[in-house]
Design a protein that fits this description.
By secondary structure, the chain is an alpha+beta fold. The protein is built from 24 helices and 28 strands. A hairpin with a 2-residue loop joins β25 and β26. The two termini are 143 Å apart. The structure holds adenosine-5'-diphosphate. Adenosine-5'-diphosphate is lined by residues 763-764, 767, 791, 793-794, 796, 804, 809-811, 816, 821-827, 850.
Length: 858
């Protein structure tokens, strides 16, 4: 049964052992042969497979059996098993088959050594049984020498004795011939003995020669079986004397090479310096050693590169002359190629790293020294290259400290972990600016050829822009969502508003219908003018007044042709003015139309309002038309009456005035203060009455179209100064201040503008408490001059501001009740200013005062 425990030996260990240049057996503790060395295989002449697995003594029965002697192999093995110490058997004679004398055993001497191999547990794992026979020849020779010496000593002793005996014999010869012959016989015997001895010596020498031949044979077989190339070349031409299988295999050019010269076998090495090395070794006797040298050999017809460590060792003859060279070599091609490959892959790695589209670096050692870093990594760090290279990472990049990176790098370097991070925020001082970057990175252990970790390889991608872009998008999305919600809410509001609008529309429709009904009932004409198309339309009543067919749309000029010629221009001007945005768009005018069908005149009052678009262009002018023929007639009658009355009142008033003047003159010398006062008060009352009457006359003139505007050029400043003076004379109750004003030349009706200013001033006095200030101002604004009269009086309510300028309008309050007047002063002012194409208006705050303005074009 074979013991399979040999399986436990690793194959390479087996091979190492087997190629050892010794005679060895590896035994298990149970003495099973695990393997034997190549030399012993050769010695036994059996294949290794047949030897392995057998019990040691089963396979080597010729050895002494166990327990026989203390010096025996089995005792030695037992000793080793017991002591776990090496044990050596003293020189033992073991007779082995004689290779020269087939069938006979040959006396050989062996040195047996047992070497235990201990396992980690301390138990014996293996025993190496080694037989050293290199001593056997020497021992034999020594033994022979010992025998010879012994014989020689014996011989010397014998000779001495013989000599002594010869002496004695000679002495005895002297005494007797009988004894001489006896001595002669002994001498003869001695001679025979010497001859035998001589013969013995010669045979010993023959034996020795044969042994030497065996020894040479052994060396040859040793050389031949050596696993590395060996060659022996002799003579200056380097003729091949001996080649082992390894060198034949390496050269790979057949086996029939013995006797050829080195140059004949390896012609491709000419001019490569190899022949020269051989030549030098042969000539100088100095060995040559080459390390990792490239040798190009032709293998299978192609020149291939090999790397060898090789030696040319000179071989000396007994005279000390070089007769040949021993060439030993070790094929290190794979080793060198591996090294070159490693170097190349190192370079390739460097190139890949430097050209990598992502940031890469190698940090060596525990302090992470920056050894390799591509430009992208340098850019990521934001420092000059020289500030980073060949320095510990955190020395070049102190700003990256205390952000947890030290810990990660340490884990990779000490534990060999690979660490990946996504969008990790790292704050760095880049180009002197503190920036927060977001980086994807991988830290991998960086190893040497022996797989030891020597550093960290870092790969990083700057994803800051993606992260910020995503944040922005997220932010935008949130905003969008919020806007959406708002829109939704707005939509809901809109739909509510729409509904309201729809119901309003309905209501509007109803009220429009109602309005139309009301308009019809009120006998109002409605009209609509589109300034864009120039078309004019109106309701049935208006059509009938204008003599138009139903549904007919006409041009404005066709409509205005119906207006009495005397009024036509005035109406056209009023329409044109209302269509200017700055005018406010109001349109109100009375005029006469002549029905084209009946030729009957009709007094109408048109009032309307213009609509403007965003660019302040009029898009519509529409309104109503009221038949005021009867009203006008009434007013005419009233005006006529007022005119007649005023006129009639003027004559007696003039007489009263004259009489008062005469009375005043006559009373000038009297001391009657009552009469004097009465005359003075009467004068004031007469003046008031005169003003009233002239007011009525003016209204009457105005209404009957008899008020004429006669423009002359005059200085407005002077006019204002005059009127202020006059007023101050008659009314000393208030302080009137004329604000600084440049001389302004205007083209206007001097008396009418005087009337306007006097009216405004007397109102300011009338409607403000005594002692209050009145300010008169005059400024140029654009193409007009603007006059203002400001008081600190009662002021005017907002709702009354529009109506102030209407005929006979008065504000009825507890203050104004006792102030006399007819409400015609401001009406006259407005009409006069309108006829000058100016504007008149009031700004007032109740309880604080009012300012009346009017403008005149320059
Ligand atoms: P009268 O003064 O004769 O009543 P007006 O046409 O001059 O007529 O004025 C019309 C009304 O405007 C006055 O009754 C008065 O109520 C008001 N009014 C005019 N001027 C002033 C003013 N300066 N301050 C306050 N109210 C004024």
């Amino acid at each position: 049964m074979k013991d399979l425990s040999s399986q436990v030996l690793p194959p390479i260990a087996l091979r190492v052992f087997e190629t050892l240049p010794a005679y060895c057996v590896v035994l298990s503790p149970r003495l099973t042969i695990l393997t034997v060395s190549d030399n012993l295989v050769k010695l036994t002449g059996k294949p290794r497979n047949e030897i392995r697995g057998h019990h040691f003594f089963d396979f080597f029965p010729g050895l002494p059996a166990s327990g026989e002697k203390d010096t025996s192999i089995s005792a030695s093995l037992r000793e080793v098993l017991r002591t776990k110490q090496p044990h050596q058997i003293p020189l033992t004679r073991i007779d082995l088959p004689d290779p020269l004398n087939f069938g006979n055993l040959k006396e050989t001497y062996w040195q047996v050594i047992h070497q235990p191999v201990l396992a980690e547990t301390g138990d014996i794992a293996y025993i190496i049984h080694e037989i050293r026979n290199e001593f056997s020849d020497a021992i034999a020779a020594r033994k022979l020498l010992e025998v010879n010496e012994w014989n020689m000593r014996l011989l010397n002793g014998d000779l001495q004795q013989a000599y002594e005996e010869l002496q004695a014999s000679n002495e005895e010869l002297m005494s007797g011939n009988e004894e001489l012959s006896a001595i002669n016989e002994e001498l003869q015997q001695m001679q025979d003995e010497l001859a035998r001895l001589n013969e013995n010596l010669e045979s010993r020498i023959r034996e020795r020669t044969a042994e030497l031949a065996i020894s040479e044979q052994k060396i040859r077989s040793l050389v031949e079986s050596a696993p590395f190339p060996i060659g022996v070349y002799t003579g200056p031409e380097m003729r091949i004397e001996l080649l082992n299988q390894a060198i034949i295999d390496t050269w790979n050019r057949g086996t029939d090479l013995i006797g050829k010269t080195y140059a004949e076998v390896l012609p491709e090495l000419a001019d490569k310096g190899v022949y020269e090395h051989l030549d030098r070794v042969y000539r100088t006797g100095t060995a040559y050693h080459a390390e990792n040298e490239r040798v190009d050999l032709v293998v299978d017809g192609t020149l291939q590169s090999f790397y060898f460590n090789y030696d040319f060792t000179p071989l000396f003859d007994s005279d000390g002359h070089v007769y040949g060279i021993m060439n030993t070599a070790a094929d290190v091609t794979e080793l060198v190629n591996a090294k070159l490959q490693a170097e190349q892959s190192g370079k390739t790695l460097y190139n890949i790293m430097m050209r990598s589209p992502v940031s890469k670096c190698i940090l060596l050692g525990p302090d992470h020294t920056v050894t390799v870093a591509n430009d992208r990594m340098i850019a990521l760090w934001g420092k000059p290259r020289e500030a980073m290279m060949n320095k510990p990472l955190f020395e070049g990049l102190p700003d990256a400290k205390n952000q947890g990176l030290e810990h990660l790098l340490k884990e990779v370097f000490t534990l060999g972990k690979t660490i990946e991070a996504r969008e990790r925020a790292v704050t760095l001082l880049r180009d002197n600016k503190q920036e927060t970057l977001y980086v994807d990175f991988v830290y991998q252990p960086y190893r040497d050829a022996q797989e030891n970790i020597i550093g960290v390889m870092a790969t990083a991608i700057d994803v800051t822009s993606q992260v910020t872009a995503r944040d922005k998008v997220q932010h935008l999305n949130e905003e969008l969502a919020a806007t959406n919600e708002e829109l939704q809410a707005a939509n809901e509001e809109q739909s509510v508003a729409n509904e309201e609008l729809a119901s309003l529309n309905d209501a509007l429709k109803i009220s429009q219908d109602e309005l139309e009904l009301a308009i019809d009932a009120a006998g109002l004409g409605t009209w609509d003018f589109n300034p864009v198309t120039g078309k004019f339309s109106g309701n049935d009543l208006m059509r009938s007044w204008f003599g138009l067919q139903p549904e007919e749309q006409i041009d404005l000029s066709a409509a205005t042709s119906v207006i009495a010629e005397t009024d036509r221009k005035r109406v056209m001007d009023a329409i044109a003015r209302a269509l200017i945005y700055e005018s406010g768009g109001s349109y109100q005018i009375d005029y006469t139309i002549i029905n084209p069908l009946t030729n009957a005149p009709r007094e109408v009052r048109a009032s309307g309002k213009a609509l403007f678009d965003d660019e302040r262009r009029a898009t519509r002018l529409s309104g109503v038309l009221q038949d005021v023929t009867e009203q006008k007639k009434d007013e005419q009658r009233k005006n006529d009456f007022i005119g007649i009355v005023s006129h009639e009142l003027k004559t007696p008033l003039t007489s009263i005035k004259a009489l008062l003047q005469v009375a005043a003159m006559k009373l000038a010398k009297t001391d009657d203060t009552f009469l004097k006062g009465a005359i003075e008060k009467s004068n004031i009352q007469v003046k008031k009455m005169e003003t009233m009457i002239s007011g009525f006359l003016n209204v009457s003139r105005l209404e009957s179209g008899k008020m004429q505007i006669e423009k002359t050029g005059f200085n407005l400043q002077e006019l204002l100064t005059e009127i202020i003076k006059e007023t101050e004379i008659s009314l000393s109750t208030h302080q009137i201040q004329f604000l600084p004003c440049d001389p302004i030349e205007v083209q206007a009706d001097h008396d009418k503008i005087s009337l306007v200013v006097s009216n405004l001033l007397s109102n300011a006095v009338k409607y403000s408490p005594k002692g209050k200030r009145i300010e008169v101002g005059c400024v140029i604004t654009g193409p007009t001059v603007q006059v203002s009269v400001k008081d600190e009086g009662f002021g005017i309510k907002e709702e009354h501001k529009e109506s102030l300028f209407e005929r006979y309008f008065r504000v009825e309050t507890s203050y104004t009740r006792h102030i006399s007047g007819f409400g015609i002063g401001l009406y006259l002012c407005a009409e006069i200013i309108a006829r000058h194409h100016g504007r008149i208006w009031v700004e007032s705050t109740e309880g604080e005062g009012s300012t009346f303005f009017f403008t005149l074009p320059l």
